[in-house]
Each structure stands twice: as C-alpha cells, then as structure tokens.
Fold:
Amino acid sequence: ILRTAAYNDPFHLTFKIFLIGDRSVGKTQLMNRFVDDRFEVASPPTSFLYKSRLVGISGKVIDLQIWDVNEFPDSKSLEGSHGFILCFDLTQKDTWLNVADWLWELELEENSAARLAIVGTKLDKTSSKNRVVSLQAALEFSERYRALYSEVSAKDDINIETTFRALVCSILSLHNLN
Structure:
C-alpha cells in the first residue's frame, strides 16, 4: 500500500487501479464519469489515459490513481497495482468472450495483492434483444474468479460510484485496513 507522500499516515493511502478491456467498451467514459462527472457522446479512442480522484472510505482518504489502457500493460507497469476493472460491452459478444483472455494475461493469483472487478458497460443500451450476456452468466463467471461484478452506464451515471467504492473496500479488506 502506498502512503500518500504529503501525509504519510495510515488514513491517507494511494491505490493504483487499471481499467482494462477491449477497445470501445467504455473504459474512458467510465473513468470520466467517476473522476470528472461527465460523459462525452463522441469520445475519440485512447491508447493510454491517467486520472486521479480522492475518495473517503472508512475514515481514510484514498487517492485513486486510475490508468485507462487499451493494450495489456507490461509487467513493469503493473507493479504495485491494487485493483483492476476489467470492462466488457454488454451488447458486444466478442468483448465478453475476450474477458477470459484478459484474465489469462492478468494472471491474478489467489493470494494476489490486487483485487478484480469485472464490469459490464453500456447498460443504457441493453434491452431484451441486444443484450448478449445474461446477468446470471456474468455473475457465475465473476464468482469463479473471485471477482466483484457490476453493470454500469457512464451515460446515465448508473453504478459508477458504487463500482469504484466496492473495489476500494475490497482492497482495504484484503490488506486489513477497513
């Protein structure tokens, strides 16, 4: 756990979080909604983006350093990671099928110092005819990997805050800091 340099006390922490997943699944929009409370209808693809936001949980101030990447980061970049948010588009089957590939690349061990959340994006676009992954299938898959699971809409601001806070609470619990 990184202590925020300005404070160096147990109530001020820094967590490194990676947003990973296929291109165009909504990672940047997810980050923009969480950090800046904004949604851009037309947003250009990014290859790498970094933002941070302070959150208060359990009497602690946590600096979330959020890294949005489109290609799997090299192992050097992943050093010291505390959490991963693996995103897929609820309306695009290929992005769901690629979740297993991302997990294989990630190689999270059972005793890993990082936590994982699998997140279905673009909830606002789902209907009975264009949703390609059932909630039940996604929950069962996530459970097998001991991952948190949520479905979000950056456009409609659904479950964004809850998803990040749940991941932070899981990290705090893992390190006995809650």
